[in-house]
Amino acid sequence: HSLNAAQIFGNCVKKTKEAAYLIEDLGFDLIDLNCGCPVKKVVNTGCGSALLLYPEKIGEIIYELISALKIPVSLKIRIGWDADQISAYKIVKLAEEAGAAFITIHGRTRNQFYSGDVDHAVIKECKKTAKSLPVFANGDVIDGPTAEKMFEKTSCDGIMIGRAALEKPWIAEEIRH
Predict the structure, then answer these.
(1) Catalytically annotated residue among 12, 35, 37, 126
(2) Residue 156 annotated as catalytic
């Protein structure tokens, strides 16, 4: 069974909700709010990873989307802005309180972009923090063994494959096998 999902980003509740209504009307099954994109042109608009500095704003947007839509809403975050500002734990709590379908956590900060090691320990603690919210892990999953390592080190409920799928479109089947 395939799922048609759309990922959006925004920092204005009203505009983000308008975009979500359009996506819902197009027949999508799920909307994922991207609060993890580290790219400068996105962050400079106050969207993507910039929202990690304002967990309550993320909570407000998620709550408003979930309250307004008939389809489930999830979100993707990074563990925080930088090593001194890890906001993932608070965001997990806010997402769960709002009724998010699941949360995906990329195990790096915004300032790390795609370099350095993924912090499995923060993802694992987020999984412990969540009472019923499914926690998916993301970052450096490039094949079956790295997927297995992610599950073992984080106790996550699932994984999200990112950039590796662009180079290896068969990666999901490899991991499933």
Answers:
(1) 37
(2) no
